[in-house]
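User: Can you help me understand a structure? I only have the sequence.
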Amino acid sequence: MDYNTERGRLVIPEYGRNIQKMIRHANNIEDRERRTSFINYIVGVMTQMHLSTGSYGDYNHMIWDHIHIIADYKLDVDAPYPIPDREAVEAKPKTMSYSAGNIKYRPYGSNIEKMIKLALSYEEGEEKESLVETIANHLKKAYLNWNRDSVEDVVILEHLAVLSDGKLKLREGFEFSAAEEIINQRAKKKWVDNRPGGRPGSKPMNRQNKSKQNLNQNQKRRPTVR
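Assistant: Let's start by predicting it. Here is the structure, written out as tokens:
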């Protein structure tokens, strides 16, 4: 069965076909006063439709705009607002340009490159050294999010050199966080985040413990008899 294939297009589907028919019918009412009164009745119906969906606010202007749009901008009534501009309403939005950027290593994203650029602006010293170490460990962590198995530290060192044009170097003797440690921390955090109603560091409460807690609370609330 072909449903609605010959019934015409709904200009604003949220109001349904009956509202559209009523607005189109208003255009055929010759008496301007009666036509205005009929449209005001439709405004009330459309307002109630918005309220029934849980939406609140001053929709009067928007509803009048929608009425003019459904009436193909040909409705001549005493309206509290001017007829909206057809070109402005029907203008197609400009295509948004998404910049893919020149990310050299996608597992790290663009933020890490900003961090590296920031580190390059630091003067030599402990603060810069600490930031570079943080960046290096973050590179390893991000890489393991992309490749869950493992990664050689030498690979991260190569990536750091490329991303910083060889200008950022780790202090001699620096040791990366172990891959197993990073993976275990990630798994632990995921377990804590997914626990229903739990808080970090607490153990799930079984039924027996929960009953004891409720009993203790009831005893505390019980008034003392003197």
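Now, to help you interpret it: The CA atoms of residues 31 and 77 lie 10 Å apart. The chain has two domains: 13-89, 111-194. Let me know which part you'd like to focus on.
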